[in-house]
Amino acid sequence: MKPTRNPWARTGAGLAWHLWLPVLLVAGSLLLSQQFSSHYFPPLRTIAEQTWVIWFDGGGMAENLLPSLLRLLAGFCAAVVAGVLLGTLLGLMPRTEEALRPLTDSFRAIPGAALLPIALMFFGTGEAMKIVLIAFISMWPIMLNTIDGVRSVNPTLGQVMESFKLRPLDRFWHIYLPAAAPQVFAGARTALAIGVAVMVVVEMFGTPGGLGYFIRHAQENFQVVAMWTGMLVLGVFGYLLNALFRAFEKRILNWHHAMVAHTQGASS
Amino acid sequence: MRLLQAATVVGFLALWELFARTPTAAKADMPGALESLGRLGELLLTGKYWAALGSTTGSWAVALTASIVMGVPAGLAIGRSRKVFDSTKWSIDFLRTIPSVAFIPLALLLMGRTQAMVIVVAVIPAVWPLVIQAIYAGQQADPMLGRVARSFRLTLADRIRYVLAPDVLAFIWPGLRLATTAALLVTVSAELIGGSRGIGSEIMNAQIYNRSATLYAWVLTACFLGLLINAVLAVLQRKLLWWHPSLRGKQR
User: Fold this and answer.
1) Which has the least CB within 10 A, A159, B100, B134, B247?
2) pTM surpassing 0.95?
3) DSSP per position, chain A
């Protein structure tokens, strides 16, 4: 790209470079799938039409998307609260943390899906099982990152807290939480991806309602087009969730990025 | 500390044993720690156990290798060129956020309950972190290193061994760690949902036939497999990346 004076032309060129492949991919699959006669790969147009019929016209949003979203939010929020609290405690008690490490390492190492039958036996197939499992499995990355974040607090700040005799709650709220925030967010981003995966898996086994249930049910009844619409909705769901989380993170961590830029600018 | 950690493990097992005797646990048919470990011991002597464990480990390893072979060169190529990076950015951003478990039903329709199905589904979440990190590696590649290599007339093999490999390795390592965990999670999930042979389907079968001690023995197996993989990664990291500034003098 030649550097142009006109900023509009430059953004336009940048936009064109960003856009051509996605447009080509969508157009290509639109055309190709039209020619394709495979039962398993229905034409994209049919999928798009059915997505409208099933999810927007037919109330699929309220029936399957909303429950998924709500239980993911419930599980994820529980994971954040539990992960941050436990992480802060363990971060401040290095000896306890080290003693407990065989357990935390083991729980983190279990591939989450393996816990599904145990959760089924304890909580049944209902909502409690789904939320508990989402929360339990996605809690670990948040907790481990919080431990690291709390440890990274500048030792001088510790002395400052001593001299001001800050109450523990104030220390947590004003010192440890902001200091650990960048790492907490990094852990939470991983946790969100894990949470969505766990959500889909538990819904495939649990009571009706939810994206995972819908896709699994459609597949078992060979409703291939319906299954594809479910996958499409789930894909957009995952994308939007991630985008929202990143926007939120950027907003909250604004001060942090400004500080990094400032200190790096000052040192160079 | 070692002693304290051993005490923690024993304490946990004792708590488990006690909890298993409460009415809550009895209602959920939870076996005690001793019973589960005993069952695991019995399973260890059967060929079926090792076949299932080998199947899961094999699927995981093939999926991870395939992800590295596809993801790293692709990512490096994308990272090298600004235009290619811009062109692929949105497509990659969209594709990588699709939860990989969404593909399990489709893969089941296409491939049935086979190991190939498990592998294909496990590649999907493993390849993206590697692509992303390799893109960073491609973007950050120091042109000076290439020039130095040329001045010294390094052979291609030496250039790969001494210039390219260490640099790329340091960049893709975090991606590799994410990829290993994601691939294992999805391997077990696909076996659980699809019923292809492996830890996942053994767990599901144990649940269906109400053999709770067997179920817990398999969950312990999954946990040990995860621990083993993490331990191997930690050793590899010490052996391969000890020189990297972010890891020097770090214990964990």
Assistant:
1) A159
2) no
3) ----S-HHHHHHHHHHHHHHHHHHHHHHHHHHHHH---SSS--HHHHHHHHIIIIIISSHIIIIIHHHHHHHHHHHHHHHHHHHHHHHHHHH-HHHHHHHHHHHHHHHHS-GGGGHHHHHHHHTTSHHHHHHHHHHHHHHHHHHHHHHHHHTS-HHHHHHHHHHT--HHHIIIIIIHHHHHHHHHHHHHHHHHHHHHHHHHHHHHSSS-SHHHHHHHHHHTT-HHHHHHHHHHHHHHHHHHHHHHHHHHHHHTHHHHHHHHHHHHHH-
